[in-house]
Write a structure and sequence with these properties.
With about 180 residues, the chain is an alpha+beta fold. The protein has helices at about 30-40, 55-60, 65-75, 80-90, 100-105, 115-125, 125-130, 155-165, 170-175, and strands at about 5-10, 25, 45-50, 110-115, 145-150, 155.
Length: about 180
Amino acid sequence: MAGFQVSIYGRFWLSTEVEPEDCFGLATYKIYSALQRQREDGFPYVFFVLSVPHLTSESVAEYVPEDLAWLLAVLKGSRLVEEVIADYLGRPEHQGRFRGLLERMSEGEFRVISATKAERLLHQLLFDRVYAIRVPRFVQATQVNMHFSLSQDLAPLERFLDLLNSPLYVVNVRLYEGEII
């Protein structure tokens, strides 16, 4: 879709302010990067999230071979190592391993949030929804995430698609300002 930047991320829970089944953690550096690109490119940046009920990091972890999990742990969760492992597990010979997970994705619902709205909520709810800043030395062990409510903070995909029926300048302004999504 011309004029839109799209990112898709996983879902997990660490916040005490949002129920686990309604929570989506988005790295704060990703929000910052999206806003930087939005300013540079002049196009609104939008995050699309696929939320699958009861699909957690623990339920996905059982599909990852132990030797790869061990490697990731020994190398302290390096982003580069994560990407290499993901590429390796994405090969055709591993497709059968993840078939059940892929089938579960049809149960999911896409939701949307603009980078601008994500930033506004980050500022408004910083101490309620960014768990890492409330716990001493927590940031040293992990990335800092903003925890969003899927039902309250993100909009259903249908609302985003309805917005696309508006003139392009209206879509850009509403997304750039974070009014609806």
